Amino acid sequence: MLNVKGTYLYEEEKPFFYLGDTAWLLFDKLEKEDIQLYLKNRKSLGYTVIQSVLVYIKDSDDPTTTKNKNIHSLSYWNFVKDIVHYAKTLGLVFGLLPCWGSVVKKGILHSDNALKYALFLSDFFKDCDNILWILGGDARGDFDIKTYQILGKTLKEKMPYTLITFHPFGRTGSYLWFNDADWLDFNMFQSGHRRYDQMILNAKDDQKDNEDSFGEDNYKYIQKSRTYSPIKPILDGEPSYEGIVQGLHDWDEPYWEARQIRRYAYWSVLEGACGFTYGNNAIMQFHEKNESGNYGVRETWKQALHAVGGAEMQYVKELFYTCHLSTGQPHPEYILNQKERHHRVSCFASKNYIICYTYMGDKFDLNLEAYKGKTLDGYWQNPENNSKSYFTTLLGGTIYTFRPTKKRELSNDWLLILEVHHE
User: Fold this and answer.
1) Would you give the DSSP letter of residue 247?
2) Among residues 310, 327, 344, which one ends one of the domains?
3) What are the tens digits of pLDDT across the range 337-350?
């Protein structure tokens, strides 16, 4: 059973790293055999949470004709429960979305029937201790605050030990609407799929002008959430997907790649996030051969299971546990002459480790005054394959300049890991 302590999640008394995968249409499109294949693959790659929607309807859909499975049949819900129980045998948690945001937007779920639905969900899944609830679904909380409050309050009242969060609209965070809600156990933000120069596209998924939108700087959403009280755990619940067009709307744009997904992961986790959610364009929609597909999808979901970026996420999780990140905190002030955007260097530190991440492989200056009198072993770690190479031992208490070796033109990110000796 998961719980919250400070700004991190725990499984009983042990820190729990939320490594999520966006399997939005899993229950809608796949049958049991393929679901088991998918879950076993994600388990083998170190994922811990599978984010899936129970009731999915597009804005343009007629809900009476477009479901691949009949959500009004008990057999559908028993099918879901069987999959949840199977996931438990693999040690996986399901992040269940009661519905996608479009269901609320179309007025199908509203404040008059939300209580009934929440009561059904809490009763039907009461014996499932490997789930957490994710309200929203690419939704603004203030579109229908009353409906989401009813869902959250009821699910928390009936399932008090089951964690609840909210998956928000692109480039917003749940803290904007629900941070002080007792039912919201941890925050989630969606940094989204746009480049810096795509902040405003005049598209249907533009957010309101009066809210902070940080583009690719996803760590800034975490910093922003810390200005709200109480401070709760937070993670990026939907960064740019691997294999999706940048900006979503123009299929002639370039695609997001593994190196950029790594940047989102390390930037956020080294800013104190309690986890990270990976996404893949083909997997999130479970694209099959000969389907038209969305957002320029180029491969089937079974091919995408082996995408490079999806496999590399296990190294982020390994870093969390190896360096005990739940005992530390971000220290951006240790980086001197900090640069912006892609040239920013992250820094996270505890009494035992200092970890820096450079996306561009830039030279940077690190102030180790806080470690005066300590000896530190220095390692370069390659986020592409997790290889770790010792290169120096140094004394704390002064400023050092670090310059990682060059890998190649378009992929030159590195982790600097300084391990503190305690004599």
Assistant:
1) T
2) 327
3) 999 999 999 999 99
What is the domain extent for residue 211?
2-327
Backbone angles phi, psi at 390, to 5 degrees: -70, 140
Q: What does the DSSP 8-state code read for residue 355? A: E
Mean pLDDT confidence for 252-268: 97
Neighbour count for residue 298 (Cβ, 10 Å): 15
Token pair listed for 73: 């049949």
d(CA 376, CA 420): 4
Closest to 140 (Cα-Cα) out of 195, 190, 194: 190
Residue 375 is predicted with a pLDDT of 97
Q: List strand residue ranges (DSSP E) for 334-374, in order.
A: 335-336, 345-349, 353-358, 364-367
Report the domain count for the chain: 2
* Whether the predicted pLDDT of 302 surpasses 90: yes
- Name, in order, each residue with C-beta under 8 angstroms of 269's C-beta and a sequence gap of 6 or more: 275, 276, 316, 319, 320, 325, 348
Statement: residue 27 has pLDDT above 90: yes
Residue that is last in its domain, among 287, 306, 327? 327
Residue 386, CB-side half-sphere exposure with 13 Å CA sphere: 13
The CA-to-CA distance between both ends of the chain, in Å, stands at 38
- Amino acid identity for residue 359 in this structure: Y
pLDDT at 67 over 60: no
- Does 253 lie in the same domain as 376? no
- CA–CA distance, 126 with 119 (Å, rounded to integer): 10
DSSP 3-state percent helix, strand, coil across the chain (nearest 5): 30, 25, 45
Strands (DSSP E) along 194-237, which ranges?
234-236
**Angle, helices 258-269/308-322, rounded to nearest 10 degrees:** 20
pTM equals: 0.95
d(CA 239, CA 19): 13
- The Cβ of residue 15 has, within 10 Å, a number of other Cβ atoms equal to 16
- Based on the domain organization, do 47 and 161 belong to the same domain? yes
Q: Please give the pLDDT value at position 362.
A: 94
Q: What is the pLDDT of residue 204?
A: 66
Cis peptide before 230 (omega within 30 of 0): yes
Query: What pLDDT sits at residue 64?
Result: 40
CA dist., res. 84 & res. 398, Å (int): 52
Task: Assess whether pLDDT exceeds 70 at residue 146.
Answer: yes
